[in-house]
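Service request form, structural biology core

Requester: graduate student, group of Dr. S.
Request type: structure prediction, single chain
Budget code: on file
Notes: please return the result as structure tokens.

Sequence provided:
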Amino acid sequence: MVSRLPKSTIHIVACILLALNLRPALAAIGPLLDRIESSAGLTHTEASLLTALPVIVMGLCALLGRRLRNYFGERRGIGLGMAFVMIACIGRLELTGKAGLIATALIAGIGIALVQVLLPAFIKRQFASKAGRVMGLYTTGIMAGAAIAAASAAGLARELDWPLTLAVWALPALVGLLFWFASTTDLTGVEPATGPVSASHRPAFWRNTRAWELLVFFGIGTGAYTLVLAWLPPYYTGFGWSADDAGFLLGGLTLTEVIAGLAVSAFIGYFPDRRGPLLTVLGFLLAGLLCLLAAPLSLALPASLLLGLGIGALFPLSLIVTLDHIEDPALAGDLAAFVQGGGYIIAGLMPLLAGILRDRFSDLSQAWIVMAAGTIVLAVMCLRLSPASYARLSR
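Core staff response, request fulfilled:
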């Protein structure tokens, strides 16, 4: 039945299945963090590494994007990445101490990075003018996986205990791995290693101001995502909420992210100038952070909805505006790798900073203030991202 579907539809399904597996290894941690800290003897700073380290590793691997694509090819490299995610989840069954948890976090980060580095170029080449919408579906799938993991973690942990709850996510990773290989047999031996642009004409992104602007923009924006993913549930359990309620709040937030991501996928084609949508979603994000600071208990639901709308739309928009700058698929993949590489390193520092602040002040308010300031910086940067400015990347 699947083989009767158009090849483009099968490829979209494959991208979504892969995307669903790119966040559960991180998102399932937050609702269980208090229990994991107690069981493994972790401080708040050490516990933050379970989210921060994979994100930083994702960034470091992304910086090697072109070399990884040339060495593995997209098909094998993406399959290897999904295998790493599966292995990391299985490893959490037994590796429940501090060193084991950090090791599996690193393995998961490498696997996620391989998929995130290689898949954008595949999407750009396979879908051409529709790449923006497919990227919207892909990033929405990422957030959907996070929503499912966050909402189900506490309930599963009551029945299975937390190590098995974390290990369960090896099963959908296996499904994604098998479907990817089954649906991309036509790519064997035909995917271009470097694209039509010769190495001598490839821009040196690290020398380009606009590339760095896109990197910082993606990094700060994604920092909001990693900060909320890691610390929103512990923030509310600190107020006396149950792990279930805190997990459902994060699950609801990430479900809102999914809706926002779908809206981006559906309507982004009507906005060739991305600044209007970007400023709108940054307003949502700032309003949500202010709710957390002003009245976290009475405004918990509005805060989660606003944060979900802001983060959920900002993530795909950041990638879309990055891909807008370059038409060539291989070069677009290189740029996405550069932007995600440095960006994820920046984003990985946010949950780590929050853990340090929580150890120091026994509170997370300072982390929300830092993120609110970052959101204002993003709004100022956004004003520079007009379509007429895209040519700056080639200078």
